[in-house]
Amino acid sequence: MFSNFDFDVIQRSWFYLFTTGMKFTLTLTLVAMVGGILFGTVLAMMRLSHSKTISLIATSYVNLIRSVPLVLVIFWFYFLVPYIGAWIIGAKEPVQVGAFSSALITFILFEAAYYCEIMRSGIQSIPRGQVSAGYALGMNYWQMMGNVVLPQAFRNMIPILLTQTIVLFQDVSLVYVLGSVPDFVTVASKIAQRDGRLVEMYMFVAVVYFVMSFGLSTLVKKLQHKVAIIR
Amino acid sequence: MHYNWNWGIFWQESPDGVSTYMDTLLAGLKWTLALSISAWIMALVIGTVIGTIRTMPNKWAVRLANGYVELFRNIPLIVQMFLWYFVMPEIVPASIGNWLKSLPNASFITAFLALGFFTSSRIAVQVSAGINALPRGQKLAGTALGLTLPQTYRYVLLPMSFRIIIPSLTNEFAAIIKNSSVALTIGLVELTAATYSMREFTFQTFESLTGATVIYVLISGIALLLARWLEKAIAIPGFIASGSANTGGH
Known about the structure:
- Chain A is an all-alpha fold.
- Chain A has one domain: MetI-like fold (Orthogonal Bundle).
- Chain A has eight helices and no strands.
- Chain A has helices at about 10-45, 50-65, 70-90, 100-125, 130-135, 140-170, 185-195, 200-225.
- In chain A, helix 2 packs across helix 4 (about 100-125).
- The longest helix of chain A has about 40 residues, at about 10-45.
- Chain A is flat and about 70 Å long.
- Chain B is mostly helical.
- Chain B has a domain at about 35-190: MetI-like fold (Orthogonal Bundle).
- Helix content of chain B is about 70%, strand content about 0%.
- Chain B has ten helices and no strands.
- The longest helix of chain B is centred in the first third of the chain and has 33 residues, at about 20-55.
- Chain B starts with 20 loop residues before the first helix and ends in a 16-residue tail after the last helix.
- Chain B: Pfam families: BPD_transp_1.
């Protein structure tokens, strides 16, 4: 079964795989996580807004994004971003934004819809009395949100936010469909096809993803016990 | 900005000369539904078995089931598709491998296996969470009535827990439809792939993407309505409906 398993191809390419592919995947994951959580929090605050219009806009956005597959969203933004760029700077031709920016915009906007739902339940888990207490102390809406509600919501939600980030880390592999973005899977599959070593490469990719995701989720579980607020 | 909109493109003839581009999209939709529904059935069966084992008293069985869940949860779906499609035929004995590669619908069967196993691990988590959410007394009461452990699971614990986890199961059904689009990477022409090929022939990028988006939104709308109806129809009296859980994942 493994008689002609060629470990050499992994030995030859692992350094390149990690310094190019994995570096790209991790960078995209981290930047998209920060951007996604920021934009997701804004969306969550919009969804919980008293203004019907603002809440409807955010709700429609979140529901739309959540009902469409990520692969389709990747295609959408890959083709759409150059046109939006042209529209913003008033250019006649679509602007070439490059694969990284396009993938980054896609993942921030896509994951924000998921982070939004997490933050929304985080905000909703804060007792209403906290809001009233903030106002009673003379705070305005933004001070109350920024100093009372959001810090507690974030703390409650840290484990779930991180779990979603592990999902995001795995999701980044789907930029493979664009073929031009050097993420871990794309780089590995190019080497696999070049050397005719699909079996070794894809098994290696699976092992790497397994070890990293399993390690991260074990850490998140440990963290979950640590940050839990004792009530 | 130069983009020539042409919404009529859906009714124009596609390169095969017989059907329209709308037919192309609908053919893709059929593959999406066939894949999602068949993989869903497989995932539900395996997920229930694994999820049940995770709540059993036998430590080693629990460990094995946990290992199963971790294995399929921590590898991205696209990589799992590649493993079934490219790797599996090579590491089984050559005769079986050649037979697998020569199957007429090889990419459908591989996508079915990949998606089914992937989703089964997620359903297993939900099933065991449902069983663990039941009061301990339920299991004791079953045993006190003289039921064996399998009977307690069959007549008391599983029917109760399934009614509790309906919201997360419907979420998962919406997810499997979306996840089925990953099958385009191994050559299955499901809805997203059909859209992409329509774009390549017509260059009407945004019309074709809009077509697919509308179809996906309609499907998830229908799934949502069915879910609401189902939740009401089978709610357990006296239990507060847990509502759709807003936890991580897709």
